[in-house]
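Continuing the batch. This is chain 6 of the set; chains 1 through 5 are on the previous pages. Same settings as before, nothing changed between runs. Recording input and output for traceability.
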Amino acid sequence: MTNRLAEAKSLYLRKHAENPIDWWSWCDEALATARAQNKPIFLSIGYSSCHWCTVMEGEAFSDTAIAQYMNANYLPIKVDREERPDLDSIYMQALQMMSGQGGWPLNIFLSPEDLVPFYAGTYFPVDPRYGRPGFLQVLQSLRRYYDTEKEDLQQRKALIIESLLTSAVLQSGTTTELEDRELLRQGWETSTGVITTRQSGNSFPMIPYTELALRGTRFNFESQYDGNQVSTQRGLNLALGGIYDHVGGGFHRYTVDPTWTVPHFEKMLYDNGQIMEYLASLWSAGIQEPAFERAVAGTVQWLKREMTAPEGYFYAAQDADSFTEPTAIEPEEGAFYVWSYSELQQLLTPEELRELQQQFTVTPDGNFEGRNVLQRSNLGQLSATLETALSKLFTARYGVSLKSLETFPPARNNQEAKTANWLGRIPSVTDTKMIVAWNSLMISGLAKAAGVFQEPLYLELAAQAANFIWENQFVDGRFHRLNYQGEPTVLAQSEDYAFFIKALLDLQASNPEHKQWLENVIAIQDEFNEFLWSGELGGYNNTSSDSSQDLIVRERSYVDNATPSANGIAIANLVRLALLTDNLDYLDLAELGLKAFRSVMHDAPQACPSLFTALDWYRNSTLIRSTTEQINTLIPKFLPAAVFAVVSDIPEGSVGLVCQGLKCLAPAESVEHLLQQVQQSQVRA
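Output for chain 6:
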């Protein structure tokens, strides 16, 4: 028997439809029911490709005794964090305040009358283990506390809501006002330090940090770090490491070790878009390692083959786990991607296997539960023998050769995965929803790679996705975040606006003659300003003014996580728009935004690399006005704070005009003179 979530559009919510727990989705009716019945709310937040979310669904949330107690004593609500990042952000911050750590699943207990949390945790086992209490024990203790310790409950909630409100308005004790260049240097130094090689723990891409580290190398700041070396090494870790799928293309989310060897195998669209943009930037900066170009090309192949809907948009994610056979009860982590040594012996010639062992981490014992994750050991171009070997592994995995497999249809749920007639291995489940913010990150990555590598296919894929969003995500004149099989839903949040505006600007930068992108940007920026700009505090709120009634605080995204902060991207967009339109109102908003977050930039530079990228744009923005032919020669170059404008009226005898913010330099009389002006403009004092 199914519960309410069987009717949900979200794959993550539907995964809980068979639970004996009487789940609600987050809605006015659920909140009103909790208040009417005086039941504390058990709010559980996760996402479809989250491994421990899946574990808890199959354990605690499927346990009959737990469900009976939960249904009688709580109002249980399930939320997909990818649908409601605003809710996730608020309650994740509360979890971190209460426990000092975060992560998913995010399980948090709220008072029904005000939605303020009083207890939170992540994974709870059915029975006590791993140093964690059993879930039923937790539920019983918290219900007893809620009923009998009212005074302590109110005091506890008061502290939590005060902390959340204080964080939202960014009260700070900062008294020192750093000059912009020194503040930028401090931000660059901090971010470069963050991605310097560590000796323990998981390895995450952390692209907002790497992007700032790379763009800051042009300043030649005095530092304990070699920014070029650090930026290059991160690119090599990504392109050579086990985090990259060397057989099928695309990047996994992170590795569970400091050596970039064994990944957590889910593939997220947002990671792949950011990494593609970063590797293209490295190439444009002159670090032209063949592995970078191969990883970008392989990722585009994977995207086109497995992650692109017939309508042109991109799917959200692929799970880490997959079934080894149709009769299997539970999927196994990484099963679609790893190789036993005996398989490799059967599939490859002795020469191919020998070369694979020389160039990749392949051993009889394996590096992941007796099997092998492929990680490259050396730089450079792969030999024809190795490319043949990898093609054979592709055929074994997919059942069809790489050249003949144009599209690989998604398994939309476990049932489809287990019953479809797959020619090779059973694939991981794909979450096929369209998320504007994540699609936008991929559009930006494709646009950058198209310009750098001069690949028209990349631009074509990017434009198709952008057109889908523009044509389908507006309902009654308002921008919407999600699309489920043709149905737009959920009002857009700040990251959707900011990332999509950036994506359109990046498309414009790769094809400056296409004026329509800029016209679209202006229209959507107007809506962004109207509904999400904070007139009281500066910067953009996470949610619009007419869709925040169910939030205990209105946050402004300024902290970078796996994706950039919305405000960091939005402020940089405003600077770019000011240059392209000559509308200085955009520059005024950018200045107000930077002023709003200056305290956190000073006090916690490790939290907000994207704001420092925005500061770089504000200080060093450069407009290049020239002909199409001349601009096309500049697009592949590393010009991280430049925008292009195609004009026909450049001064006679010149090749272009370079403008620094609000002033223009003398017309450039030669290509060399133009490049010299551009390079100087990118690092001006």
